């Protein structure tokens, strides 16, 4: 894991809008051109409309013109002692918007890391190939 990604995700935690859960999540997306794009979770009074940190980072990258093959890896962190992994909705979006072989780094507040391939997070996933 690139230490810079972890530091970027950690620094962005302050920007999480977590009025309802108070559960801060930060994500850092590493692009092949070396850039790091961050994301935080952004909640809403209509709870189901919360956008997770992972999706915020991915949508920001696409909005800036990056595509699937420009993405190298994604890191997620929280303020928790335990390692947190991406939710099901994020896995579905990651499955479509990130390369299958991209590394996903799941970390905790101490900097421990668990690494998985994106494709391992959503076995038997539904994709555009099914349409
Ligand atoms: N959350 C994320 O941002 N990423 C995840 O992978 C898990 C959950 C957010 C959604 C909500 O704002 C808060 O964490 C509690 O579920």
What name goes with the CATH superfamily? Cytidine Deaminase, domain 2
Oligomer: single chain
CATH topology: Cytidine Deaminase, domain 2
Please identify the structural class as seen in this structure. Answer: alpha+beta
Low-confidence stretches: none
Shape: globular
Mean pLDDT across the residues is: 97
The small molecules bound here are: tetrahydrodeoxyuridine
Question: Would you write up a description of this structure?
Answer:
- The chain is of the alpha+beta class and 131 residues long.
- The protein has a single domain, classed as Cytidine Deaminase, domain 2 (3-Layer(aba) Sandwich).
- A 5-stranded mixed β-sheet has the order 2-1-3-4-5.
- Helix 3 links the parallel strand 3 and strand 4.
- The radius of gyration is 14 Å and the shape is globular.
- It starts with a helix and ends in a 14-residue tail after the last strand.
- 31% of the residues are buried.
- The site of tetrahydrodeoxyuridine has 13 residues, from helix 2.
